[in-house]
Amino acid sequence: MKVSWRNPRRNLFLCALLDLLGMLVVLLGLVSIWPQPLRGQELWIVITVVAYLLLGWLLGTYTVLGWPRLSRWTLMQRLGLCLFTTLMLVAICRWVINPSLDVWLVYRSRQVSWLLPTTIWSLMVRVGLRRGALQSDDPKLVLVAPQDEAHKALMAWQLTPTRIMPSWMTSENAVLQESPLVLAVSPRVRHQPEYRQLLEEFEQRDPRQYSLTTPLALAERQLERIPPALLPEPWLSYLEIPWNAMFSPQRQLKRVSDVLLALFLLAVTSPLVILAATLIWLEDRGPIFYVQERSGWLGQPFKVLKLRTMKVASSQAPVSWTLPGDQRITRVGAWLRRSRLDELPQLVNVVLGDMSLIGPRPERPELELQLEASIPHYRKRHWMRPGLSGWAQVCAPYAASVQDSELKLSYDLYYLKYFSTWLDLLILFRTIKTVLKVAGR
To answer: What is the C-alpha separation between 377 and 293, in angstroms, rounded?
Structure first.
């Protein structure tokens, strides 16, 4: 059995694939009982399957796989809600399209007969995956490092509680651990005599049963972020980041996609912007848009455009963080922030080239002076164009302190190092999920 460090999305894809398989098997089983043929039902099979899988993703029936503890009642609630909303969505589609009487799969009784067993199958799949079925056992994570470095590493894991926490121990105790095992050894320990004994011991074991790495590499793989406190100085030059590669197809594709998607979104969302602008003006008769200076690519300042979500403040008011329950946020502004609609005017910044759709969020220069002095490697986040959304925005909570900004920087550094079209697509889908769930702040 090969050692595998758990990929947080591996179970999601496996679960979605098993859901799809279960839906098709249940349907084929029912067709063998029902007298009607499947011919002519293809469109409604696709609609139902896509609706069930997408609603399951949106309602969090896959998210629960990453929870430290799985509540059966919560899981049943989410699957039941997915079943109900899928039935309602298919009923709405039937009412809008009004198919012929030959399309029997849209009947409520047929939909319930198909989706109810599928939901029971989905419940069994999730419980089975959480109990270790269809996958290898998670290896034990062992951290061998000096106390100060171990403390920094463990603090990084505590900020991401959904990931497996490594155990900190000495080289002598690490040797006694049974496989499967992932051993994260600090480079500072590798110069000590005890490390040679540790290495000799593990070289005698089955290499498929253990893996040797560093605390930093383990954090990157497990947490999908790069904690600044674990980074050496210097780390990662500008010439090494994927985005800077000369004639990079991914870089060119990113810019073309930014312009085309931004123009499309500006056209599609213009009615929403007009509605939001009207509500903002009606609430307090103040200005609709909010123009603010932010730091862009390589730290160059630019003017960012947003829908105003706060009460009009004096130009002499000091710069401060936006906190939960901030009294400066208007009633319309609170809704705009939760839905992220206040960010839509920044699509103009994307077209102009000041921003990208995906990238580190731009910060105010006044706040960055404090952050650069407090957080190592902070200026590296300027090495790519700032974005409307980013890896930090879909993975971390809203930043309201220096500590929150350090957490977000760890995700920005990960994006900087591992930028790819695939990662941009993942961020885009998670942003859509946040918008649809009105889960912003």
So the answer is: 22
Contact between residue 144 and residue 198 where contact means Cβ atoms under 8 Å apart: yes
- Tokens representing 372? 């650069």
- Name the burial class of residue 73, with classes exposed (0-12), middle (13-18) and buried (19+) by CB atoms within 10 angstroms of its CB: exposed
- Record the pTM: 0.82
Sequence-ordered list of residues with C-beta below 8 angstroms from that of 292, at least 6 positions apart, any chain: 303, 304, 306, 364
Q: What is the dihedral of CA 130, 132, 136, 140, to 10 degrees?
A: 70
Q: What are phi and psi of 304, to 5 degrees?
A: -95, 145
Q: What angle do CA 304, 412, 272 make, to 5 degrees?
A: 40
**What domains are defined for the chain?**
10-130 (no CATH), 140-223 (3.40.50), 243-313+321-436 (no CATH)
Each residue's pLDDT tens digit, 368-412: 888 888 899 999 999 999 999 999 988 887 777 888 889 999 999
Give the pLDDT band (50/70/90) at residue 360.
Answer: very high
